[in-house]
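The following block was generated as part of the benchmark described in Methods. Ligand: adenosine-5'-triphosphate.
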Amino acid sequence: MRVSTLRISRIEIKNWRNFRGARVSNVSDIVYLLGPNAAGKSNFLDVMRFLRDLAKSKGGGLQEAVESRGGISKIRCLHARKDTEVLIDIDVTEGDGLAGWNYIIGFNIPSAGFEKSRRPIITREIVNRIGIDGEKTNLLNRPNAEDDADDAQRQQTYLEQVNTNKKFRELADFFGSITYYHLVPQLLKFGDEISGRILDDDPFGQGFLLRVSSTPERQRNSRLRKIEKALQSIVPQLEDLKFIQDEITGRPHLEIRFKHHRPQGAKQREDQFSDGTLRLIALFWLLQEAGDAPLLLEEPELSLNEEVVRQLSYLIETVRRRKSSSSGRQVLISTHSYALLSNPGIDADGIIVIEPSDNGSTTRKVNKSEQAALSAGLSPAEVVLPHARSLGIGMQLKLDL
Ligand SMILES: Nc1ncnc2c1ncn2[C@@H]1O[C@H](COP(=O)(O)OP(=O)(O)OP(=O)(O)O)[C@@H](O)[C@H]1O
Ligand SMILES: [Mg+2]
């Protein structure tokens, strides 16, 4: 049975980073964010990370979410005009239907005289329940009477507090379990030597092996088998992908056996895997992980060779679909890889083009003529990417050295 999962269906932002204003409707299950360097792909993903930071069960909240980004002046668009409120307005719906939630959060630095502190305050926080007919029922509309009676309350969202989010806990849990992933293989391989601080949500994958280790054995084995299958289409010499615990140190490890001239094959642990193999293992793991909230992937093409990247969109789709209990989690991917988008099977609806300008970036979906070319069998790489590149064909990057 297909269990209906929540997904982001519309995103609207105002004064967010390098976007003065942007709106994306009908957000697909697999989204590709395209744009040249510094277009705002990571900034766009950061909208969802911000909502996650508001709602996450450990250490969440408006103050921390703003502070960890260097304060409101780093978040607010430098191109903002008179209206300086930062705003996120997002719809989250169940499956393909209209029913779900609408959440709006606006915040700003209090105007002089309003309050002594320069801490950001909410300018509005609105929650609407959306019915199957698309009709909205309002559940929260701040500032409310309580805020008027006590200014300090506006430093916190109702989303971040368990005693105020009761009526929309499902939405808070959904935001709180959004995952962001930008695995840096070196941090995973040499974590012990680097002994760096692992960030709260481990975006760079240092704690990935612990994640694998703390998964119940049956589930772990089943996921690893699927990953092994997917990997074999790319690394044919690979025979067996296993989880092991070091007998002496007790540390968790992954082990691969490779076909080899020796009869028992050659075994390797994760510190010997290639960067690309490691990134793929972590990526395929996350695609299968429990939880239905979106997965945000930064440039999954990194350290993979072009042939593999060509198959990546197909692999993401199949691993995602194999997840047994639901229709698969929503995936939002930032990329500038030509190869990744060279699969003509990529759903054009999922493409979001980010276009920079002197006045901040804007977002758009594929236009009519691009749609026609895609329907005729061309790939997004051929049709959409040339426009998304900062350097046109024949132009060269000039460096004054
Ligand atoms: N508050 C802000 N106002 C205006 N611009 C900003 C703000 N914050 C960040 N930027 C700019 O936004 C630009 C886009 O950054 P972002 O990291 O999202 O790009 P990207 O598309 O992910 O690029 P890459 O492909 O290099 O990763 C950067 O040049 C950055 O200086
Ligand atoms: Mg980026």
